[in-house]
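ZP: hey, is the 6-O-phosphono-alpha-D-fructofuranose complex queued? I don't see it on the tracker
AM: it wasn't, my bad. submitting now with these inputs:
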Amino acid sequence: MGDKNYSTLGEFIINNQHDFKYSSGELSRLLTSIKLAAKIVNHEVNKAGLVDILGAVGETNIQGEDQQKLDVYANEIFKSALINREIVCGITSEEEDDFITIQGKYNAHDNKYVLLIDPLDGSSNVDVNVSVGTIFSVYRRITPPGMPVRKEDFLQEGNKQVAAGYIVYGTSTMLVYTTGHGVNGFTLNPAIGSFYLSHPDMKFPEEGNIFSINQGNYAHFPQGVKDYIKYGQEEKDNRPYTYRYIGSMVSDFHRNMVKGGIYIYPTSSKAPNGKLRLLYECNPMAFLTEQAGGKATDGHIRIMDIKPKELHERSPIFCGSTKMVEKAESFMKKYTSNK
Ligand code: P6P
């Protein structure tokens, strides 16, 4: 890829700053800080096998999940990039018990954005050298500037998001994001540390045949999901589907967006509310899905219309190629009269 033909992420952010009325450049600085943190985390992820950064820290996070050393490391890198540089007025993270309000020296309370982040999704895969990712979501604060943020600044519906994106630390490292004007993907050239626009205007194919779900939980799934899995296995039309499930949502999502497919993490008797967290996994991925022409629901209603009640609440998610999500919904609808 000749670098000269691709704009860098920095140029792209500046060139598209006009998308924001009254833009004070705050969102541009926020995205630039995420870019910086992504490069630092990428550097560690790529050499994880060589330094004492693998394995668990021996503690659990608020989710009750063993914290991997890289989870904690990535969380600290993104926090410091956004807090020390006083880019946002508040942050919440999968690795934090509660939200963090930022005072700082330069009145960060006046800043207008809050950040919600899953610093390293799928981190249990790092030990086995499988791709992992960071997921982020940005909102304009509700509370007036000049005072500490409150919970309502974070408990906003996904349809209020200002920006969302992910970094996938894979065979190449990519940053993919939206500010509500489509989805664009940037690939890191590690030799010079710049992200280049490699995937402009990404779109979910309307139809696809890749199916991502942990079929190990089949016995625990709702009947509608079981019926949809059987539908995907029939020898008919563009079926049977190809089943691909990496155990790292960002990687499954990215592949499905490029090739066409659906990612499903449904409710089950083992996970009555699903597993993925609404605020910093489902909502940002739903924003990206819709901006790329796909569909994202909880099996019945649009993910981005769910009114959050708790910071770490979970939601089932069906997201990807519109026709595949609608077909899955049609099976779900057969068993829920009141939805
Ligand atoms: P399971 C990783 O922990 C994650 O949040 C997603 O990235 C991934 O798709 C899913 O959970 C894997 O969960 O229960 O199938 O192992």
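AM: back. The pocket of 6-O-phosphono-alpha-D-fructofuranose is lined by residues 121-122, 214, 247-249, 275-276 (CB under 6 Å).
ZP: great, adding it to the tracker
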